[in-house]
């Protein structure tokens, strides 16, 4: 017997966009710190109801280049971008989020916006 | 305006309150209220005592539901076969329990996502629920008890389940599932939960009127 | 010279709805406490961006009957109602918000939903 | 997809950064950056010294703006009449200053709502701004410095002003108005401010491209 629900039929699957971002900080941040900062930004900007609609999801953060990927519902890309634009600190240290680009797949996102930061 | 006019003339049913004080308050705001007796089961219950208790509760509250909280699918089938004079709800959360409840054809599966990291519900289960006429209960009270982060997760799972419930035309209701007086909410406020999960206003209304009424006809 | 901006032309005026509500609490609350509770509910549910779109505005609270009026952008009535439904306490004391009805004008709202609580 | 393609090929101008460190960082992310010299005025400035300073700033930064922070409408007219070789911005917030800036035909009025309990802008002022070609500057940085409650108020006033700016076709730009490095934001992230104020994507883009370019032609 299944212990997990099955994948949804295609018509009910959420449509996502992937956002590549760079963090400029007064120090380097860990992926855990960035993940938390994205959640806090979403909750304070969109609340828990808006966050449930935007469905931000931390995908990956490369600590060396301080660049990463976050996923969001495709109807709410600009809301999350704005939430990130209003971040002023990460875990007590000053920081700026800069979005590098948006794509419908992680593969294209890496190729177009993250390859120059050493992603492959 | 017509929305609000029909609201005041509407007939609303609260399907799941779990204490006397919750029942009393809900009775002020709803046209009918079902009192839920919570039954945590690890093995077969004492059927004689349970029948007596349900009889007393029916005397006090009229409509009564029995909420099974168990890890054992076999107990769900046993309770269903004994068919006590009460609606049979199953507390969701365990995937095997969710499925067993739907296959046994109980009256409702409450919050199949509770305590999970996924909705606990998928298109296979939605198909079984629709075929066996098992309602999905969307409860507000778990949202009241958790952090903002967990509220996001619960809302995601509830919205996803609603998409499946709509697509497969599964019976459903919206309820407070109030354990105490402070978790009771008014019918129109419970409708707003459904609307924010993605329901149209008539769908949210049906979740407190048409679907509950259909379930009560089974009693 | 004007010290305040003039009223907006009708086409740019916001379209509002007025919500009548009742508060059930373990004690009676003041208007100030209720006003603050509505703001907190809006910010935590909708965030500051969602609140800027919903524009919740405390109008009045009658401390005797513990009933009041809040205004909201007409496209966001259900969001604010949900925000209020999730309130569990006001200034540390247990409370329930119950909405009584919605109308496009304060006058109609009072007549239909608040007259029975002694409003006129 | 086409949106993002054109994004990478686009040309963006940051119209208002107020320190060297902010200028340096903005220069990495924008095609052109205007350095703003902030001038707090209670009486007429020393014109000789100011001319020298502006000349030096032009040498260092190329495009330069002079931001007047004053309570005195007469000083706005005086500075405008002297026409220094810089864009003239006025810091908004005082209703008489807002109006005087628009009537004097300076290049931009920055954040007319700053420190107010209303937008500081109405349809009368929008008409004057459009007629005299005065841009409204929508700054992000004030949002970074305040509480969530105040953010709501600022966003309300900015969105209301945007409605008037659109209706009356007033020139405008979106800017960080960064005082320091940590308040600088990228062009696409500034666009998201405009979009969340109610702009369509092309309108937000024009606020960092077409409108700034038109203003720079005046230099």
UniProtKB/TrEMBL annotation, chains A, C:
Molecular function GO labels: ribonuclease P activity
Organism: Thermococcus waiotapuensis
Reaction catalysis annotation: Endonucleolytic cleavage of RNA, removing 5'-extranucleotides from tRNA precursor
Cellular component, GO annotation: cytoplasm; ribonuclease P complex
Record GO biological process: tRNA 5'-leader removal
Presence of the UniProt keyword Lyase in the record: no
Subunit structure: Consists of a catalytic RNA component and at least 4-5 protein subunits.
Similarity comment: Belongs to the eukaryotic/archaeal RNase P protein component 2 family.
EC number: 3.1.26.5
Protein name in UniProt: Ribonuclease P protein component 2
Origin superkingdom: Archaea
Gene designation per UniProt: rnp2
Compartmental location: Cytoplasm
Top-rank EC class of the record's enzyme: hydrolase
Cross-referenced InterPro entries: Pop5/Rpp14/Rnp2-like, Rnp2-like_sf, Rnp2_archaea
Keywords: Cytoplasm, Endonuclease, Hydrolase, Nuclease, tRNA processing
UniProtKB/TrEMBL annotation, chains B, D:
Record field: catalytic activity: Endonucleolytic cleavage of RNA, removing 5'-extranucleotides from tRNA precursor
Enzyme Commission number: 3.1.26.5
InterPro entries in UniProt: Pol/histidinol_Pase-like, RNase_P_comp-3_arc, RNase_P_p30
Top-rank lineage group of the source organism: Archaea
Mitochondrion found in the keyword field: no
Any GO BP annotation: tRNA 5'-leader removal
Keyword presence, Transmembrane helix: no
Enzyme class per UniProt: hydrolase
GO molecular function: ribonuclease P activity
Keyword tags: Cytoplasm, Endonuclease, Hydrolase, Nuclease, tRNA processing
Compartments, record wording: Cytoplasm
GO cellular component terms, semicolon-separated: cytoplasm; ribonuclease P complex
Main location: cytoplasm
Gene3D superfamilies: Metal-dependent hydrolases
NCBIfam families xrefs: PRK03892.1 (NF003023)
Protein task: Part of ribonuclease P, a protein complex that generates mature tRNA molecules by cleaving their 5'-ends.
UniProt subunit comment: Consists of a catalytic RNA component and at least 4-5 protein subunits.
Family: Belongs to the eukaryotic/archaeal RNase P protein component 3 family.
Protein name (database record): Ribonuclease P protein component 3
Organism of origin: Thermococcus waiotapuensis
Lineage of the organism: Archaea, Methanobacteriati, Methanobacteriota, Thermococci, Thermococcales
């Amino acid at each position: 017997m299944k212990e997990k629900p099955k994948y949804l039929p295609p018509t009910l699957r959420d449509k996502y966009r992937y956002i590549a971002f760079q963090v400029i900080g007064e120090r380097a941040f860990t992926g855990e710190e960035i993940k938390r900062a994205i959640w806090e930004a979403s909750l304070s900007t969109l609340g828990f109801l808006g966050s449930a609609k935007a469905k931000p999801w931390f995908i990956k953060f490369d600590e060396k280049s301080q660049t990463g990927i976050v996923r969001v519902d495709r109807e709410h890309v600009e809301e999350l971008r704005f939430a990130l634009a209003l971040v002023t600190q990460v875990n007590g240290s000053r920081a700026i989020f800069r979005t590098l680009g948006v794509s419908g797949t992680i593969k294209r996102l890496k190729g177009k916006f993250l390859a120059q930061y050493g992603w492959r | 305006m017509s929305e609000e006019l029909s609201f005041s003339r509407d007939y609303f049913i609260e399907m799941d309150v779990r204490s006397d004080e919750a029942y009393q308050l809900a009775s002020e705001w709803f046209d009918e209220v079902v009192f839920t007796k919570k039954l945590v089961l690890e093995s077969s219950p004492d059927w004689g005592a349970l029948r007596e208790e349900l009889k007393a509760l029916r005397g006090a509250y009229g409509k009564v539901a029995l909420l099974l909280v168990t890890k054992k699918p076999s107990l769900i089938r046993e309770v269903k076969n004994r068919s006590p004079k009460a609606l049979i709800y199953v507390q969701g959360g365990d995937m095997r329990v969710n499925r067993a409840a739907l296959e046994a054809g109980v009256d409702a599966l409450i919050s199949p996502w509770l305590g999970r990291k996924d909705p606990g519900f998928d298109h296979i289960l939605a198909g079984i629920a629709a075929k066996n006429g098992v309602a999905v209960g969307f409860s507000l009270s778990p949202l009241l008890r958790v952090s903002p982060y967990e509220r996001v997760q619960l809302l995601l799972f509830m919205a996803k389940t609603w998409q499946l419930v709509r697509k497969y035309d599964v019976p459903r209701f919206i309820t407070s599932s109030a354990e105490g007086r402070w978790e009771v909410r008014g019918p129109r406020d419970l409708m707003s939960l459904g609307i924010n999960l993605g329901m149209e206003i008539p769908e949210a209304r049906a979740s407190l009127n048409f679907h509950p009424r259909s379930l009560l006809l089974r009693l």
